[in-house]
Fold this sequence. Notes:
This protein is mostly beta strands. The protein has 8 domains: about 10-135; about 150-235, Immunoglobulin-like; about 240-320, Collagen-binding surface protein Cna, B-type domain (Immunoglobulin-like); about 325-405, Immunoglobulin-like; about 410-490; about 490-575, Immunoglobulin-like (Sandwich); about 575-660, Collagen-binding surface protein Cna, B-type domain (Immunoglobulin-like), CATH 2.60.40; about 660-745, Immunoglobulin-like (Sandwich), CATH 2.60.40. The strands form 16 sheets. An 8-stranded antiparallel β-sheet has the order 1-3-10-9-8-7-6-5, with no helix packed on it. Strands 14-11-18-16 form a 4-stranded mixed β-sheet, with no helix packed on it. Strand 28 (about 335-340) and strand 29 form a beta hairpin.
Amino acid sequence: MPTSVQPEDVTRAFSGDVVLPPPVLMNLTMAIRSLSTEASTRLPQFVVPLIAQETSTVDGDWELMTSPPRGGRIQGTLTGGRSGFFTGTLTEFLDGCEARREFSGQVTLAGLNWVAGAMLAPCPAGQLDFGELKLTSSSIGDRVAGPAFHLLAVNLSGDGSGAVTSTSAGIDCSVGADADCSQRYREGTEVTLTADAASGSMFAGWSDDCGGSSQTASVTMAAARSCTATFDVEQQQTATLNVTVAGDGVGTVTSSPSGISCPSGCSASYDTGTEVTLTADAASGSTFAGWSGDDCGGSSQTTSVTMAAARSCTATFDVEQQQTATLNVTVAGDGVGTVTSSPSGISCPSGCSASYDTGTEVTLTADAASGSMFAGWSDDCGGSSQTASVTMAAARSCTATFDVEQQQTATLNVTVAGDGVGTVTSSPSGISCPSGCSASYDTGTEVTLTADAASGSTFAGWSGDDCGGSSQTTSVTMAAARSCTATFDVEQFTLSLTIAGSGSGTVTLADGNDTTPCTSNCSKSYDTGTEVTLTAAAASGSTFVGWSGDDCGGSSQTASVTMDEARSCTATFDVEQFTLSLTVAGTGSGTVTLVDGSNSTSCTSNCSKSYDTGTGVTLTADAASGSTFVGWSGDDCGGSSQTASVTMDEARSCTATFKLTQATLSLTLTGSGSGTVTLVDGNDTTSCSSNCSETYDIETEVTLIPDPNGDSFFIDWGGDCANGTGRDLTWTVTMNSNVSCSVVFDLQ
């Protein structure tokens, strides 16, 4: 693929057999740009069969033993026999893409030099950039001289910019890295070069082997040629447009682009090449007569002029010449009526002729008197419409015919339908249905029908020839016999049911004929007076709480409503709950925690709690200090594990038992005297000369020995210690539970 920097060619031998009639072995050599010098020099093989003497087809595969290998296909045509001209393409297959490039050249005794042409289909990857291919002969034999090729070189000059392309293809020359400004062509080829200036530039002309200022130049390749295309920066010029207003009338001339607003501003300069549109507007009482001048002409209100040079245009306005024409109106027929006009002037039969400016459009209106009817227009007016228009291009005459009106009648029939009850009356009178449902009216009469529904019924709507809609009234014009139907339905009211609460259930609506089950909010319409019974049935795990709402109440499973108006009821279902009762027993103490997921309740004594049906509750027993958990008991708990679980599908009860592991002996010294009490548990002794307490393991025997001071004497034991007397009397207690004792010392 082309690059902005052309590296030095690295030539790799690319060999194969080319068979010419008679057979001639030839070697094919390719100069490949940007190919690593580390590429393998192993020569791939391919055979190019040349079928005919004058036109031979080249079609074969090639492979270059790089790592990984690279390969493709070569196709083309060789003309001129053994020595001639080759043109074709070389393709490389690369990662699913085909990179194709044109090659062309001349076969000579020294060989065939192929010159790279346009890249037809580049790949996004790095395909090989073939600079040239060379085909040389290794055989001996006469060859016929082939056609010569000459180089055409194109140069760009000037301070502007542009591009030059060629027909035949090969030249695509512009400023840039990808410019292709030279190409070899077969001798005698006529090449047409086309110069295209870039924006802001202009093509100045050709030089060297090309000449002239035309955008295209042709050169015949009898020898090497060189052509130079000159592009200059475009210099903008201006030209003046002068406008003149002429004639005895009055008017203005404006331009687009702006600049001319004549007669106040009648001259303006524009860039050369600009197309200016002039618009002539005649004042009231004047008319535009036409354009004249260098590049203006015609009678159209607008004209356009291209500012290739200074231009002048004249707009002529004339005074408008007004003419008049007479309109005559005639009233005919055996009826009576009048004809008036707009603009005013005609008021026939009193004033039946008037003059109007030519071009005026006059509207005539025919009004029939009572007992007459308008029959239509004739002469310069036509049709049966009440109005007719005529343009006063010349004198006009119109005749309005009025006939005596012939009165006729038509019958209106009314039908009352539906399962409801109601009446239909008319204005004008005549219909009072269902007793009088038919009446005759003069044709053209507009009759208004009114539908009134009886109590307990409702009006549904109109139907029939000329009646429709749901409005209580409808109107029909008696152009012919008509029939209308009024439909009355039994009035209905809606019962709206709401199902509330945390539970679920079904409410069945029964009206004697139909039943409707509702498991969620629902509504149903009933005929007025229908009595509906609502029956609530709780779903499994739920319970029915009761009825509420405007029209229902109580906790009975059923409720009834009479549908003489809209009703609403609410049925409440709650999730069914069961109670877990906990007893905390034993000589010890502790806490039982009830956990039902994210909620927990702690009990240090007997407690209870209600749970939704199906709730799983975990009970965890934690003994207090000095106590130990013994185990679970009760209807629904058991075992000695610290935790127990119950499912609340019915009422449950559990007992947690704690027992003491230690007990406290509390001693109080009373009386007017003093002394010491020694507590002996077999191993240790504790002396208390004032109130004290001591903790012992369960079942420990403790002996209390009183020792009064010298001025006191022992009186007695109290509390949990049995009464006794005697100065040296001792007391023994067994610590199965907390014990509280008192001792009395009095003064002597």
